[in-house]
Amino acid sequence: MDFDAVLLPARRARMVAQGWWHDRTINDALDACVAAHPGKIALTATLGEQPEAEARRFTYREMATMADRIAVGLARLGVGRGDVVACQLPNWWQFTLTYLACSRIGAVMNPLMHIFRERELSFMLKHGEAKVMIAPRSFRGFDFEGMVTALQPTLPHLKHVVVVGGEGANSFDALLGGPAWEAEPDAHAILTRHRPAPDDVTQLIYTSGTTGEPKGVMHSANSTMANIVPYAARLELGAEDIVLMASPMAHQTGFMYGLMMPIMLQASVVLQDVWDPKRAVGLIRSETVSFTMASTPFLSDLAKAVEETGLAVPTLRSFLCAGAPIPGALVEQARRALGAKIVSAWGMTENGAVTTTELHDDDERSVNTDGRPLPGVEVKVVDIDGRSLPAGEIGKLLLRSCSNFGGYLHRPHLNGTDADDWFDTGDLARIDERGYIRITGRTKDVIIRGGENIPVVEIESLLYRHPDIAMAAIVAYPDERLGERACAVVVPRPGRSIDLPGIVAFLKSQKVAAQYIPERLVVRDSMPSTPSGKIQKFKLRELLKDEAA
User: Fold this and answer.
1) N or C: which end of the chain has fewer CB within 10 A?
2) pTM of whole model > 0.85?
């Protein structure tokens, strides 16, 4: 695979000179952990579907050995430098170890959300030219092995499907995790000859955008680590911390701060694969967790669980919350129930966390702002002509960051970064006189449901194929727990009718992820439109708000 990460070389000299790029990789970080703390517990993985099962624990020495083992196993499957290994796993230890293994041999990890189904996967696996796909046999009652096996004949680059929990010759244990590959005579050569350089692409992660198809975000060790170092410093995290990660590691949140950050800090992480707030309370207590990060619904659920159970979580010092504004009442409830500092943040797949509040800030900052830029990040708000706006005025949010991505795979025309390195976030915002930002809306057409981006354009294009629909639009409506949900607004064809169960059944037949399917339907005789015929979605959003009021 040729990676056209054109945004990385252009800023290398400046990033190194300014001290933001450290020219280290996750291999360097893991090797340092083994040298300094070989017997320290690095990772604890729990199974939500089998809560009675004993947690799997790895010391740093064991983690490095297993990473080497899986790396040689991948090499035996033909994976080499620059090859893509797709991984559609929940927060299981195999996810973390597969990334570390890929980094040992110069392969590129492609994390895939476990909610994705045939429609999303067929595009991503083909576009990213994945050579190996690692998936669960089943999870949350769904047959992943059957889905991916059926897809494989349509994917010319996909040579192997590896199944975690599988029982056949293609199982993870048989191919990667079981045999002592690291002891083979050629193992040392395999593990050392193709280690990636700090500017090589090591992560390919897809984000739902406005173009009707997902975009493949490319990151290097330098671009990700440049974000994690100041992030951890601002939150005063170090080697003594224990991180709980319940956000999916196939999201940048879980990947950067649940997989990479603990290793970089020589800290420990506890993985939770199925979100259950009462189980999370138990894990925080039993594992003495000090930090976690998730979207607003997780915070609400955790605070309620502590109140309902009466079980305190005294070791939890801070909870970083991103993905949607945090209601003031929730901050008060969470502070009272958890006793932890609630930190507000905003970020993107393309950059990681961009802004956060600070630990010493008043709580109102977490309610009324999305924080201020991390070190190494600049932000500005501009008008339609690109002129900077004064404090308090709303405009387009641009950022210039040491952690900006390398570009979109095979889509450099969409990179959205100008010659001076300013990246157009697609969001509207204002900046106050203290430099704190507040996201106020979007110039792009995306709905964020519980921290998950819904690919609006793609769902709309599918609805237009429905035989009973003449016009369709997907718009957000507010939701107390998830922040936003999706509503389909449709105009039926003459003499036809449509209902929500019919739309749900149609989209399921198109193999769309369940989380992307609209949860509400509004049927209209016509759409508010511009003179050119473009649907005015802002009027539809106002209509939904008025109905809710």
Assistant:
1) C
2) yes
